[in-house]
Specification:
The complex is a heterodimer of chains A (315) and B (307). By secondary structure, chain A is mainly α. Chain A contains 15 helices and no strands. Chain A has one domain: MetI-like (MetI-like fold), CATH 1.10.3720.10. Classes of the chains: A mainly alpha (315), B mainly alpha (307).
């Protein structure tokens, strides 16, 4: 065995190319695609440091250094977009993260297998509804007048009678987070349910004999089983803290709530495709690059911390 | 109250709990599971009943649990309008064609990266994984696609996200874990090439992951409106989701045949059409869903192996 390994090591590149050329052929389309659609745009991100010149193309404009970055940092939109992005992310994690865990524990505790299966099937459904449809459902269900759910919330005095849940900026974040939980809670619970199904049944029996009640069994048996999964998913979530998805925010945006709904990704889009005036390509690129770098640093940091604390990281 | 009682009896029969805390616990589980059921299902149910009820009553908030004054005006309008039909046609093309291309690129790449004797595989993996966490950004990507001449062509919607790194990883993990390495070694001794091995052994043994991948990619193409928003502006090539956005969110007039606001086109009937549009655009995927549910669950499990 060792002889075979050392023999292999002494072989040159030519040998491996001959040996593996079919594997390279199989990889080629993917490598080429990623190069053209991902790595070449990364090179194109130098536009953030250049003044965009339509005639000279993407790499031809004058070099201006960090001008567009400082423009962004000094603009009023900097604090607005950063704050909105951060708040929406944070609220999504704080409220959205525990929901599937609780749901998984509930589903795992249901004794009637028919009811359990039914509930599981139902809670996954919203995940398959497209964002466009989801947002239009929000628009009708929470309409200012005649919206079934907004009327319901008003009758319970959770929101004041004259509230406009879709227009007033203070409600935007709750609508965003709430609909997000509704849509993905079931889907995200799958992984926890799987983790719970690995618990040894004997453990429950032993706990029962020792006099542990149902609450104690959840706290001392089920929760510890979930902790590793929770940690990994939490790290992944923290790593994309400035990565609020464009899709839903963009569709939920209107002129009334824009103050609290403009996040970095939608701002980049609005710079690139403004409703009035000329597109600001260089500034848009600079803003995009800035978030990319921040996200990357966040990810590396959380990965590093997780490696130190739990011994396992993403990379 | 009766339900809580059932739960108590139920739990006694099975696990013989004596502790009153257990009764409260199981009562709570039942209560929360029913609450969950209602919260998830009600919005969907409401859209269904609103689409077939008198739209004035819907707007006054009189339709809450059951449809009233049943009519199918909304659905009739949809089938007289060409936009939904065109959107459907385009989306079906993008879902079928795009998913096929995705699979042609992803599966061979996943196989190559799963070979333990393929030395550069970790470096190539890093080449893919890096793009998950870092990208050039929207504008440079747009310019690149513009340089390629793909703006406003159907091609861009077929090949945008030709390979998804996450899907590549789960396919690689699956192949690595299910196909024993000895199998290739003995096959190669008999003169079997990688191409042949991939085609005759790996693919037939990977049906589970192939279904998962097809599903992931197909749902992505079905739901995607972002790429259509950025890279296309021609209505004739836009997918269903963009048509929905115009009708549902931008209130583009829905009129018989050729568009344009007609006399007597009231807001209430416009709303009814919206409910019908939501149903018509969502039902196909919900019909497929029960059959593919287990594959989705399986996909999450395979993905979780790597974390």
């Amino acid at each position: 065995m060792t002889a075979a390994v050392s023999k292999k090591k002494s072989r040159g590149i030519g040998y491996y190319l001959k040996q593996d050329w079919q594997l390279w052929v199989m990889l080629l389309p993917a490598i080429v695609y990623i190069f053209i659609f991902c790595y070449m745009p990364m090179y194109g991100a130098q536009l953030a440091f250049r003044k965009y010149d339509y005639a000279k193309g993407i790499y031809g404009g004058d070099w201006v250094g960090f001008k567009y970055f400082t423009d962004y940092f000094n603009s009023a939109m900097f604090s607005t977009t950063l704050k909105n992005t951060f708040l929406i992310s944070l609220a999504s994690i704080v409220f959205g993260f525990p929901a599937p865990i609780v749901l998984a524990i509930i589903i795992n505790q249901i004794r009637n297998s028919k009811w359990k299966r039914t509930l599981q099937t139902i809670v996954y459904i919203p995940y398959f509804i497209s964002v466009v449809v989801l947002v239009s459902m929000l628009n009708v269900l929470f309409a200012k007048s005649g919206g079934v759910l907004s009327d319901f919330l008003k009758s319970l005095h959770i929101v004041p009678g004259n509230a406009n849940l879709l227009g007033q900026k203070q409600y935007f974040i709750w609508m965003y987070v709430g609909s997000g939980i509704w849509q993905s809670m079931g889907w995200n619970s799958i992984i926890y349910i799987a983790a719970l199904s690995s618990v040894d049944v004997q453990l429950y029996d032993a706990a029962k004999i020792d006099g542990a009640n149902a609450w104690q069994r959840v706290v001392h048996i089920e929760f510890p089983v979930l902790v590793p999964t929770i940690m990994i998913l939490l790290i992944m979530n923290m790593g994309s803290i400035l990565n609020v998805g464009f899709d839903k925010v963009f569709l939920m945006q209107n002129t009334l709530n824009k103050q609290s709904s403009e996040v970095i990704s939608t701002y980049v889009y609005h710079l690139m495709a403004p409703t009035t005036g000329a597109p600001q390509f260089s500034l848009a690129t600079a803003v995009g690059l800035f978030t990319n770098v921040v996200n990357f640093v966040f990810l590396m940091l959380t990965n590093y911390v997780s490696k130190r604390v739990t011994g396992s990281g993403l990379m | 109250m009766a339900k809580t009682h059932d739960a108590v009896i139920h739990s006694r029969n099975i696990i013989r709990d004596r502790d009153p805390a257990d009764r409260i616990f199981h009562g709570l589980v039942l209560f929360l599971s029913i609450l969950c059921f209602i919260v998830i299902l009600y919005p969907l149910w409401f859209v269904v009943i609103a689409s077939i009820s008198n739209s004035d009553m819907v707007n006054r908030g009189e339709i809450v649990f059951l449809p009233k004054d049943i009519r199918f005006y909304g659905f009739e309008q949809i089938f007289q309008d060409s936009r939904i039909l065109i959107g459907y046609r385009n989306t079906i093309i993008y879902v079928l064609g795009g998913t096929l291309l995705n699979m042609i690129v992803t599966m061979p790449a996943a196989y190559a990266l799963s070979r333990p004797d393929f030395k550069p595989r970790n470096k190539i993996m890093l080449y893919f994984v890096f793009t998950m966490y870092f990208s050039g950004g929207l504008v440079p990507t747009y310019m690149q696609i513009n340089n390629l001449g793909l703006i406003n062509t159907p091609w861009i919607l077929l090949i945008m996200v030709l390979i998804n790194t996450y899907n590549l990883i789960i396919a690689r993990t699956f192949i690595q874990n299910t196909i024993p390495n000895d199998l290739y070694e003995s096959a190669s001794l008999d003169g079997c090439s990688h191409f042949r091995f991939f085609w005759s052994i790996v693919l037939p043994l990977s049906k589970a992951i192939i279904s998962v991948e097809i599903l992931y990619y197909a749902v992505f193409h079905w739901n995607d409106y972002f790429n259509a928003l950025i890279y296309t502006s021609n209505n004739d090539i836009q997918p269903l989701q963009m048509v929905l956005r115009r009708i549902l969110l931008q209130n583009e007039a829905f009129a018989n045949g050729n568009g344009g606001v007609q006399g007597g086109y009231a807001q209430s009937s416009a709303d009814q059409v919206k409910y019908a549009v939501i149903i018509v655009s969502t039902v196909p995927i919900l019909c497929v869903y029960p059959f593919v549910q287990k594959y989705f669950e399986k996909g999450v499990m395979i993905g979780a192996v790597k974390g």
